[in-house]
Amino acid sequence: GASVSSRKRRAARLPDQPHRRPTAETMQRMPRKLMRAAAIVAVLLMSTELHATLAAPVADDSPRTFLYNPAALLASRAAVRAGDASMVATYQMVLRGARGLMPTSTEWSDSTGPWSVINKTMALPEGVSRNDYLSIGIYNHPCNNLPGGCKPYPGGHLLPPSKCDNATGLPWEPCDGIHNPTAIAAGDAPRANSMMSAVRTLSLATFLCNETAAECEAWAQRAAFILRTWYLSDHTAMEPNLYYGQIVPTASPPNKGHGGFIEWTATTATLDHIELLRYSAPSVWTEQDHAALFQWYGDFLDYMGSKEAAGERDMTNNHGSWFDVMWQGVSLTLGNHSIASEAAAEVATRRIDTQILSDGREWIELERTNPSGYCQYNLMALTLNADLARNSGSADLWGHTGPKGQSIRLALDWLMPYATGKLKWPYSQNIDPPSWGSMFEVFRRASVQFKNETYEEAACHVVKGSAAVSEPFNSLELAGPVGDDPSGYTKNLLNILVPPAFEVQC
């Protein structure tokens, strides 16, 4: 759109000027794109389906969420406000999180925000503006300083030493499973993760709020300010694409690509949390705000369908599965059910049928240096895809069976005895020993779907028995305390977002 081009022109005019972090007071004086929002509303009126999606309140007075069941969310809120003992511990955790995000000054803070892509610290490659999302692949390292144990991705190879420029360390090389924390911190991924995490906490606190009206509104105002800073305000808004996510530094300018999708896996959950904010505080996060955000994500959906993003959609491993979570989630939020249905159909044929063997093994992920972690990670994506398709009515991915018997449940049942400690993990872990905490949400959603208490018992086991997997690109870890403390099960945001179907003892 014109506003994107104008930001490009501003960036081009001021390529080398140092950036000063604006204060919250300065941000409030920045333009809010009123003319753009008005144009957006006019466009939305052309689509009956999408316009209906923006109307408030909804016909059945429920939030329009897709990853989380609206009826279950409303039941959780009613339980919190009724003082239900099963919700008290989790609700108090939400309150502490929301109160901790309220700033004590007008200065920007890495801990309380707001966050913006303009605050990246890495040098801008040629052709990249400060408003572009920019990050380096998490496993990439300078070729002259590769860590011990460096192994290429499956099917790849490391460059011979003669191809490395020892003076510059270019090109960088991927070492599968070995993070580069310095490079990660310099890019935009940590800021995006912090933004989405804060929006989740503040929006959920606003939705559940059983405190004073003033405190509820303060949380909503903070969430709205964080969202406007990241997405909408002219000076600080991110361009609606991931062209320069997870680049590999070389001597040449980066090409437009798709690597950043894996750092935005929390997008669909974030859209649900924003909907909770709109539903709970429409006078704070207004329909004008929501329309402007829809335009941003409309542009983002265009990027998802572009040739630059096609490589991510075509990936056969967890990257492709997570792309489909975003593809479904963004499409459903925008009211484009035809695209969402197309995405769900691809999950069946391009993910379940090809990624899972007839015995339930996720064969592609088993080739990685951290096979247990990546099997969980991919299965999480398949599970979320199945719930999105079920909640939207587009497909029954939970019940889908491939030509050789492949299914999500088959993969889940193959992994469960290892996750619960009944069988020893038989595959080599070149990085860390298996940690099964990320299976908590997979087991919980499966328990609800299949009305199976065994899966809930497994969820209890993994969340109190092991530390949850924490990847920089796997945003928004939902677990509370972990380890042998059973409060890892009772103090967990998932108990509100996806309430258990069974009461089990941890």
Strand order of the largest sheet: 1-4
Q: Report the count of strand segments.
A: 4
Task: State the helical fraction.
Answer: 40-55%
What profile does the largest beta sheet have? 2 strands, parallel
N→C terminal distance = 53 Å
| Strand-pairing-aware structural class | mainly alpha
Shape: globular
Strand content: under 5%
Instruction: Kindly report the average pLDDT value.
Output: 85
Number of H/I helices:
20
Rg over CA atoms, rounded to whole Å, is 22 Å
In the predicted model, the low-confidence regions spanning at least 5 consecutive residues are: 1-59, 466-485
Listing every helix as H and every strand as E from the N terminus to the C terminus, the arrangement reads: HHHHHHEEEHHHEHHHHHHHHHHH
Short description:
By secondary structure, the protein is an all-alpha fold. The chain is built from 20 helices and 4 strands.
